Amino acid sequence: MSKSIIIANWKMNPENLKEAERLFSGIIKSISDIKKTEIVICPPFIFLPYFTKAIKSEEKLIKISKKIKIGAQDLFFEDSGAYTGEISAPMLYDIGARYAIIGHSERRNPPFSSLGGTIGETNLEINKKIKAALRAGLQPILCVGENLRDENHEYLNFIKIQIEECLDGISKNSISKVIVAYEPVWAIGNGARPATPEEFYEMKIFIRKILSDKFGVKFISGARIIYGGSVDDKNVESFIKEGKADGFLPGRASLDIKKFSQIIKICETSNN
Ligand code: PGA
């Protein structure tokens, strides 16, 4: 069985480097004896160099660097050029990042899009970003998820199209490097209800079927399908046991040292 993976999506938090350092070292303290879980911290771009440097230079961190990796929350699909404000996959790899979240729903449907001018990311852009990540040696975490569930189950087609378009042209040999995060939009953020483990499990089977139809069953045996959307220390165990989740993408809970450490501990003990 492959290790379960916990990917902390800090989003645009915390407000300053001091607080980010405090959070990071709190997490480090909690993971010293982890064996069956991989941890990826995805801070805002501006804090990335601090964490990647810390992992390389601090003795204790060198020991645990096999268990903890640093990821980005996005990247741009070109490798260099006149793209003001953008950050490329090779730049991220060079600074020490090894993962990248791609196609998060807050980038597909940004909350500020009502101000006009921002249309949000399309499956085509996300596809190019996934290819750029793989080219540079980063493991992409592809986020998919429907906005709403309808009685006619049209949302299943929506997920199928997201996956097929976002993974179009990816080679069979690369597909096991892509982590698919099922994050229903209705389950993310304050006041949302998380999916149930059963809802996730059904979706996991459905996503595996789409992947195996597209790439062939033998190429997807190592592919991981993880859950995100109001993950916390209370529901994580049932997602592992009943939902068979290969890992998690917590947002808010990853900013709380106690909750995040507890999530790690539960993954470590529930994953046989
Ligand atoms: P949440 O966010 O855990 O705060 O719901 C998850 C995500 O958006 O990745």
SSE string: EHEHHEHEHHEHEHEHEH
How are the strands of the biggest sheet laid out side by side?
7-6-5-4-3-2-1-8
Q: Please give the radius of gyration in angstroms.
A: 18 Å
How many structural domains are formed by the residues?
1
| Proportion of residues in extended strands | 5-15%
Report the CATH superfamily: Aldolase class I
Uncertain segments are none
Query: CATH topology, anyone?
Result: TIM Barrel
Q: Would you report the number of β strands? A: 8
Mean of residue pLDDT values: 92
CATH class: Alpha Beta
Indicate the overall shape: globular
Q: Examine the secondary-structure arrangement and name the CATH architecture.
A: Alpha-Beta Barrel
Task: Describe the protein's architecture and organization.
- It is built from 10 helices and 8 strands.
- With 272 residues, the protein is an alpha/beta fold.
- The chain has one domain: Aldolase class I (TIM Barrel).
- An 8-stranded parallel β-sheet has the order 7-6-5-4-3-2-1-8.
- α1 runs parallel beside α10 (257-270), α6 (123-136) packs across α7 and α7 (154-166) crosses α8 (197-215).
- The relative contact order is 0.15.
- 2-phosphoglycolic acid (PGA) binds at residues 9, 183, 188-189, 228-231, 249-253.
- 2-phosphoglycolic acid binds at residues 9, 183, 188-189, 228-231, 249-253.
